[in-house]
Amino acid sequence: MRVVKWVRAAVVGVALAGLVALSGVVLGRIFAGALLVQLVAGAAAGSVGLSVATRRVPNWVVAPLSAGVLGAYTIVALKIAADRAELTGALAGIVRESLVNGIPRLLTALIPVEPTPDTVVVPVIAAWLAGLAGAEIAVRAGRVLLGLLPATALYAGALYVVGPNADTAGWTTLVFAGLAMVALATSARPAGTASGDIPPTDPTSSDDPAADAPNSKDSTTGAPSSTNRATGAASGNDPAAGEASRGLPALARGRAMAGAAAGLVVVLGLVVAVGPWVGARVGATPVDPRRYVEPPQVDSLDESPLNRISGWALTPREPLLEVSRASGAKGRTVRLRLAVLPDYDGVTWRVGATYRNAGRALPQLPRPADVSTSVVRQDVTIDGLTGRLLPVVPAATEVSGARVAFDAATGTLIRPESLTPGLRYSVTSEVQTPDLNLLPTAETPSGDAVARYLTVGADVPDEIQRLADQLAEDNGAAYDRAMAIQDFLAEHYKRVADAPSGHAYPNLRYFLFGPRGRGGQAGTSEQFAASYALLARVMGLPSRVVVGFDAPAAGGTVVAANAIAWPEVLFDGLGWVAFDPMPKSKDPHPVEEDFTPKPTKPAQPPSEAPAPSQTPPSSGAPTVLAAPPDQGPSAAVVAGGTSGSVLLLLAAAAGAIVLMRQSLRRRRLTTGTPDDRIAGAWSEFTDALRLAGRPVPPHLAATEAALYAMSPEPEKRRRPLRRAAPKTGAPEAGAPKTGVTEGGAPHAGVLETGRPGSGTATVDLPPLDELVAGINTVGFAPGRADDEQAARAGRQAVAYADALRDRRSWWRRLWWHVHPGPLRWNRRT
Question: Which intervals carry biased composition (Polar residues) (predicted)?
Answer without folding.
Answer: 216-230
